[in-house]
Amino acid sequence: MKTIFSVLFYLKRPKGYQTGPMPIYMRITIDSKRTEITTGRECEPSQWIPSAGRMKGTKETVKSLNNYLDTLRAKIDDAHSAMIKAGDDITAESLKCRFLGKEESPKMLIEIFKNHNQKFGKLVGKENSKGTLSRYKISLSHTQRFLKWRFNLSDIPVKKVDHQFITDYDFWLRSERNCGNNSAVKYMRNFKKIITICLDNGWIDRNPFLKYKGKTKRVHRVCLEQDDLNRIAEKNFSSARLEQIRDIFLFSCYTGLAYIDIKNLHREHLTNRYDGEIWIMTNRQKTDIPTRVPLLPQAIELIRKYEYHPKCANTGLLFPVPSNQKVNDYLKEIAELCKIKQPLTFHIARHTFATTITLANDVPIESVSVMLGHASIKTTQEYAKVLNLKLSRDMSALRSKIGS
């Protein structure tokens, strides 16, 4: 790729300078990025020609200094030509290192990512949110795991991040990490922010995301209607394991807590508030955003049911929660036994809390957003859209009945 290259000799004013000669510096500029090198020579300002970058006069000492500057210019030109011939990536810093005979220290991807997160974290509560910082931390962790999986390395020079790297990373997120399309695209956007920093600083000169076409897709959020929820709650199971999974699922329907957050719940997360009600006070593991949920009577009853369960009594946990895979396997059985038509997964419980339990019963969307631990109310508004679609379907059905 063609670069715009220039060299300038100039006098640099030292700190606290008053009178006397100034040091002569050589400035290298490539594509608007600059670096400088001291020449080891000095000149009185009155004897310097800024436009020419030379010392004025005809004395031998003047000729000697100007010849020395010409030699430096010739050497930097030779170094530049050699890098072009070798096909090297040419930046002001890399040319400076070549000229000085030094090996340029490569900018490392994970080091840059960690530095970004550290700076971002210092502005949490001022310009940045805790939830966004959490997403960057997760994205960093994914990037580290990908490097280990793909290259068996803990870090890599950022110049080695090319289009193939981007497509491989996207594939790894979808296959090895089992991310859905939207999750994969969001992690890639976080990673793209780091690449943009590298581009802006001149650490890379090609954008590896240029042909990346990842786009989020509109997600249809599924929830249980009240009749389905009642059938599950009122069903008598002959199997203790199915009853246990049903209860944990119902607790999520009544609180909006995700699977992992219920699994991590301890008695210390319960608190009696000023209103006399019992609340759950915790942070979502996914985003580390605080979640505050005043408990409904049904949720309190479920907590009391497992108070003396061996696993809960010995550990302080609120519920004996198996692995996510087992929970979802058992939910398939529960759906079949309760004649639930749609596929039943644990996350449907969280959607059900947002729509059927709260929004449908006139709980303000701002309150629902806090209880769900959403970083932005925009996320909660997606549930309101689901509720509006349901209302539209219900009214269509009513029109059909009245019309007939």
TrEMBL record:
Tyr recombinase domain span: 219-396
InterPro entries cross-referenced by the UniProt entry: Arm-DNA-bind_5, DNA_brk_join_enz, Integrase-like_cat_sf, Integrase_catalytic, Integrase_recombinase_N, SAM-like_dom, Tyrosine_recombinase_XerCD
GO BP field: DNA integration; DNA recombination
Keywords: DNA recombination, DNA-binding
One annotated GO molecular function: DNA binding
DNA-binding listed as a keyword: yes
PROSITE patterns assigned to the protein according to its UniProt record, in alphabetical order: TYR_RECOMBINASE
Family note: Belongs to the 'phage' integrase family.
Name by which UniProt lists this protein: Site-specific integrase
